[in-house]
Amino acid sequence: MFRNNYDNDSVTFSPQGRIFQVEYALEAIKQGSVAVGLVSKTHAVLVALKRNAEELGSYQKKIIGIDTHLGVALAGLAPDARVLSNFMRQQSMSSRLLYNRPVPISRVVNAIADKAQVNTQHYGRRPYGVGLLVAGVDETGPHLWEFQPSGMVLEYKGAAIGARSQSARTYLERAFEEFVDSSREELVLHGLKALRDSLAQDKELTTANTTVSVVGIGENFKLYDGDEVGEWLEKLGNVQSSRGGRTGEEAAESMDTSE
């Protein structure tokens, strides 16, 4: 088994200034199925590709509602995402109890960033092996943030995480100028097109493996799952990947168990 003298804990730097356990956590995100987020002037949308470990098993949850104005999509270790989402719910409830208002998106995102970064400073802890796309609406409008296990958070107009997410990012980079003025339906279709571009050659979007969530100004966070996704897929039309042959990365991705 491969051993590295500098990866026994998350507080030791290598001679090159690297923290290997943080890099391992980032690798766990790359092994998870893809999640895409995008934002307009009025709405924020999350779409994700669900995965089942075997044919007899159910598909794993990929989008988690935090509050009526806030939700997250995950890629990586689902148990770690559950811990962070529960912490975000606590922050949201505290804001409503103490200040009688929904928690600002930037505040709750920075709270989980601080929580994650502490794990890279104390011996005996490990970084969270999950990446999150946080979408929500507050007093300043819709927002989309990406969280990484190192404790870094950045706000985006469009973002994608997980296996083969580069294909989805390529679509987002090509079309992001249209997002600002897009309607609710157009924004969801942009997200599904980006998700479709990340599929392996023999895969397609279905009501079983696709999940969509929408939140907007004056519209509560709503999760569309199962048959509810059917109407979006009908509007999309072509649900099959147009990508070429199966790569080594795709073959490896099909055998992992991250979400």
UniProtKB/TrEMBL annotation:
Residues 6-28 form the Proteasome alpha-type subunits domain. One of its GO terms (molecular function) is hydrolase activity. It is found in: Cytoplasm; Nucleus. PROSITE patterns: PROTEASOME_ALPHA_1, PROTEASOME_ALPHA_2. The keyword Hydrolase applies. InterPro entries: Ntn_hydrolases_N, Proteasome_alpha, Proteasome_alpha-type, Proteasome_alpha1, Proteasome_asu_N, Proteasome_sua/b. Keywords: Cytoplasm, Hydrolase, Nucleus, Proteasome. Residues 250-259 have a biased composition (Acidic residues). It comes from the Eukaryota. GO terms for biological process: ubiquitin-dependent protein catabolic process. Gene3D superfamilies: Glutamine Phosphoribosylpyrophosphate, subunit 1, domain 1. Belongs to the peptidase T1A family. PANTHER family: PROTEASOME SUBUNIT ALPHA/BETA (PTHR11599). The 26S proteasome consists of a 20S proteasome core and two 19S regulatory subunits. This is Proteasome subunit alpha type. It comes from Choiromyces venosus 120613-1.
